Amino acid sequence: MEEEIDRSRAFAKDVKRIVVKVGTAVVTGKGGRLALGRLGAICEQLAELNSDGFEVILVSSGAVGLGRQRLRYRQLVNSSFADLQKPQTELDGKACAGVGQSSLMAYYETMFDQMDVTVAQMLVTDSSFRDKDFRKQLSETVKAMLKMRVIPVFNENDAISTRKAPYKDSTGIFWDNDSLAALLALELKADLLILLSDVEGLYTGPPSDPKSKLIHTYVKEKHQEEITFGEKSRLGRGGMTAKVKAAVNAAYGGIPVIITSGYAAENIAKVLKGLRVGTLFHQDAHLWARVVDTTSRDMAVAARESSRKLQALSSEDRKNILLDIATALEANEKIIKAENDLDVAAAQEAGYEESLVARLVMKPGKISSLAASIRQLAEMEDPIGRVLKKTEVADGLILEKTSSPLGVLLIVFESRPDALVQIASLAIRSGNGLLLKGGKEARRSNAILHKVITDAIPKTVGGKLIGLVTSRDEIPDLLKLDDVIDLVIPRGSNKLVSQIKNSTKIPVLGHADGICHVYVDKSCKVDMAKRVVSDAKLDYPAACNAMETLLVHKDLEQNGVLNELIYALQANGVTLYGGPKASGKLNIPEAKSFHHEYSSKACTVEIVEDVHGAIDHIHQHGSAHTDCIVTEDSEVAEIFLRQVDSAAVIHNASTRFCDGFRFGLGAEVGISTSRIHARGPVGVEGLLTTRWIMRGKGQVVDGDNGVAYTHKDIPVLERTKAVENGH
């Protein structure tokens, strides 16, 4: 699996001077005519860069194709009907170049003039570059133009080039406009070279082949022997082979190169922002990416094989792995915190929402808390191989229903790096292989946590037990692996969960929203209600089990309790929105929707008739996650507890207790609102399935003749007693 590289780090210094090469297939459309819309969009991007202070140098192909189209039209106009019946001779390529160059330049002048940008035509030949004085003069001229914000437009002067058609000669200083662009980037000391093509970048095979994959970072040591190139350019001389050769030459000369599509809008701007588009060529690429790629399937299969090795260990050995991980986390707390601080700073600089940044932060004491939960998990009864039911099927024929790992889990989560630790420890305790894909905003935190954990796993099992997926592009491939991945658990937004559910045949476990309610009944203890409501909202506002809606019995408006609850929240900085009833009475803005997860210091308040009104509201607007009632009336409490159809329903305690660690599960992979397999906080038991083990003494079915079925339940011994008795 290819590493995801931070493109912004690929450029050794601030980018100032850029060479952009536009291929023939980008410049021209069907019939050889100019692709006006596409070329206009590129010109607009370059003009914007020019106005932003970048020094832009354009290398443009397309003159030959454009000239050929114009000459064919002229030939058609001047031909008789009899002439058209004769075989048409191929037009001279050099004549086409001469005609096309003026037309191409006229277009650039017209287009850039509309954007108040001046351009200059620069026609060069290979032989010119053999002259040192020419090179010196070229550099001085271009430098003067760039200083005056002029964009030089380079093209090989094919009309007088000494190379003959069909341009099979690739010797010399440059041999096409791709190699010219690379040469100019080196000669003019550019900071970046962008080669625009008609495909997204370099693929492992022909782009038309569905099996071909985009190569995000080209590693010469790996890819030069593996790539199968398709045909050359349908219009120009080069094609991808020429682009790769030119890109490698420039990259190893110290100029970062991106090959990307000229068809996609804003791709030049995306490159400069460091976004992951196209294929990157860099002289240090071999230091970033692993020379041996691992496919999604390889990673999943390796996780399964390692999980079987884990299951083969003794219970004590599996316990010790978890204890070693807890110790390793504490030993590496400083470096983990340093990497997390970098993630947080980057997220803040990028302008991420406050709620996302809050989930990203690993607060002081978080590592100690995680280590404690792992140790608690290690001390729990071994969940693997527990006998859940034992039956005598017939005399001497014993059947056992036992707990068993699911196999390989794929967990996709956003923002919270501590989730990686919880999930990994649960996977190990339950004997499962694991693939993890965290959010890009936690990239550094996830990487260091993954390394610390996998380094603590003994070689007899192998670090491949837990795979870290670094690229979002790999997720679609993983979701297709229903034969090797057994369960997907998405932890994140409603959009994320919905996308995954709609994209895979693999069972999906999780919840889309965490719209949790606290209903304060008329018979509540006021101080208790204020404590529970405040904690449910303020203990960790970004958590999925935080209160998002406060429901209050109508009588509490009259006796002033509602105002006390409102003051307790507002005094702690909570922004309040009201339902139709509450907004007018409390003079607060009306909520746009009850079905809204704030994940911040904000919540909705509404007034209801009674407990039945609260239940109806929760069923209509809730997400079946966690809901709470505060009341001293036991009868009302039982109605609420029995009738609210949520994964967790709580009486006189904060919704924040709905958590795997607080429920005594050790940790959790998430909270499920599904009604099949597991519901609520999903700990070890939620990651197990069952299998049947039968022990006999030579019995055969033989049409059920001679078999006396007894089907008697046999008491299940405790694990310690079973082990002592040799079972």
From TrEMBL:
Which pathway does the UniProt entry assign to this protein?
Amino-acid biosynthesis; L-proline biosynthesis; L-glutamate 5-semialdehyde from L-glutamate: step 2/2; Amino-acid biosynthesis; L-proline biosynthesis; L-glutamate 5-semialdehyde from L-glutamate: step 1/2
Residues forming the Aldehyde dehydrogenase domain are 299-566
Q: Which UniProt keywords apply?
A: Amino-acid biosynthesis, ATP-binding, Kinase, Multifunctional enzyme, NADP, Nucleotide-binding, Oxidoreductase, Proline biosynthesis, Transferase
Q: Which GO terms describe its biological process?
A: amino acid biosynthetic process; pollen development
Stored Pfam families: AA_kinase, Aldedh
**Could you name the domain of life of the organism this protein comes from?**
Eukaryota
- What is the similarity comment for this entry? In the C-terminal section; belongs to the gamma-glutamyl phosphate reductase family. In the N-terminal section; belongs to the glutamate 5-kinase family.
* Its job: P5CS plays a key role in proline biosynthesis, leading to osmoregulation in plants.
Protein name (Swiss-Prot/TrEMBL): Delta-1-pyrroline-5-carboxylate synthase
